[in-house]
Known about the structure:
- 50% of the residues lie in helices and 10% in strands.
- The longest helix is centred in the last third of the chain and has 23 residues, at 249-271.
- It is an alpha/beta fold.
Amino acid sequence: MIIITGQTATGKTKLALELAKNIPPPGGGELINFDSRQIYKYLDIITGKDIPKTKIWLYDVVLPNEYFSSFDFVKKVTPIIEDIKKRGKIPILVGGTYLYLKHLLYGFDENNSPPDFKLREKLNSKSVNYLQKMLIKLNKKVFDGLNHSDQLNPRRLIRKIEITKSKTKTVLNKTVFIKSVPEIFIGLRYKDKSKLRQVIIKRVEKRLKNGAVEEVEKLLKMGYKKTDPGLKTIGYQQIIKYLNKELTKEKAINDWINKEVQYAKRQLTFMKNDKNIKWREI
């Protein structure tokens, strides 16, 4: 198996396609996407889905108003990897969502229990006092283990309740498919940070030219909202603000570029901790 990851706008998919073509027999590799933005249907231009969809697995998996966690990814990707291998081909995982990759390669711990969105929705309106009592009733040791700030933080309390109530820990560990790190594990990163920004600027300009604004207008006409998981994505959020007259077009574009650069830096921060990645600077 081959994995190609790294910062956004580094040409990961291009490299993966080249590898897929050159693996004997010709075309002996099949691409599997692990970009959390490209798994959404109808999110094409801004997410950079300019490759024929038949060539990449896990494009267009869920609707923009549906949640898709790293747990969902591991469940979906496992049979795909098995199927590709059974057909005598090489799975090539390509993408930049390191959390998906981390949980596939190294498994889950209790803090990575799958999100329970129904429970979150139910608890969001509850008071801190209610949440504290609920967690104490479920597991007082967990509550006592929180620092004072977290004991007063509703978001942290809800997450701890979610983890404590979860009964999927053993299932999660059984779900993990990969037991060893692939020998070919490539990470692409920019040597020059200024080059990263230049490439992102060009990419944003190209996507605007290709109809990024029209894509967002179409999604909103279809009934999707800015609060939907798929539309909580860089590019979509900024264009929605522009369409709602919250930002000028120039400010929306600048914000889009800045957020992409920040995202690329965060990607590298997370990935640098993985000693198995063999880095290539571009």
